[in-house]
Amino acid sequence: MDKGRLEGKIAFITGASSGIGEAIALRFLAEGACVVGCGRRVKVSLVHKRFFYVSADVSSYGSAKKAIEAAVSEFGALDIVINSAGLTVEGGLENTETDDFNHLFQVNVGGVFNVCKAAAPFLRARKGAAIINIASDLGIKPIRERIAYCPSKAALIMLTRCIALELAPDVRANCILPGLVETPMIQHRFEKAADPEALRVSMANLYPLKRVGKVEDMASAALYLASDESSFMTGAELPICGGRLI
């Protein structure tokens, strides 16, 4: 039987309790990795002999550090970090509260900083270590009523570049720019709509490929960036957004 593409690797994944993070965890497990999932939920439904879960609020450095240390304690090392946890806040300049703006940055940018800072010494000790941050196409091409979210993802893109520069040549750091992805949150929006199919079509029409993304699309991109197949790639953004950035 052929070995998986991540055989023997240990991955730490924030936001692993649902959506993109959960899909990445499942794909990595299928490819032979040991996975530590991290999220604010106390428990998750994913059960696997190579899966371990730790509850943490990564917007706190102390909490992020304890989570990373728990991962290393469980599996003995750390090869891959996926930062998938994040928040969104809808609203424009005049109707977004300052506290909401600041909190979103603390999670979407500060949380990634905290996890990467805590993980860096362990990643440096491993050959071929990688960091993958889940940013967004909205960090490049904004839309209305996302005055906090779009700048937070733009900041995450630059943070990824800075981390790549600082940790090279020991650790690679790249980010994925998803478009609209059919996560449980988006599925719930479809279900609440007066005409779910019309909403789906209108969303799909935002993209040249004429469909909404799937969590599996993001998991495939993360697998590539985590594997040795991308060994000459760092500080880059990988748009998985149906051509919206053309």
Characterise this structure:
With 246 residues, this protein is an alpha/beta fold. It folds into two domains: 10-178 and 214-240, Rossmann fold (3-Layer(aba) Sandwich); 181-212, no CATH class. Helix content is 42%, strand content 15%. The protein has a seven-stranded parallel β-sheet with strand order 3-2-1-4-5-6-7, sandwiched between helices. Helix 3 runs parallel beside helix 4.
Assigned CATH architecture of the largest domain: 3-Layer(aba) Sandwich
**Multimeric status of the protein:** single chain
Helix content: 40-55%
| Arithmetic mean of pLDDT | 96
Order of helices and strands: EHEEHEHEHEHHHE
* Low-pLDDT regions: none
Estimate nothing, just give the exact number of structural domains. Answer: 2
State the main characteristics.
7 helices; 2 domains; alpha/beta; Rossmann fold; seven-stranded parallel sheet; 15% strand; globular; 246 residues
Please render the helix and strand layout as text:
Elements (H helix, E strand, L loop, with lengths): L9 E5 L4 H12 L3 E6 L11 E5 L5 H15 L4 E4 L14 H27 L4 E6 L14 H19 L3 E8 L5 H9 L3 H9 L10 H12 L10 E4 L6
Parallel strand pairs: 1-2, 1-4, 2-3, 4-5, 5-6, 6-7
Quick structural summary:
By secondary structure, this protein is α/β, with parallel strands linked by helices. The protein has helices at 19-30, 61-75, 98-124, 149-167, 184-192, 196-204, 215-226, and strands at 10-14, 34-39, 51-55, 80-83, 129-134, 171-178, 237-240.
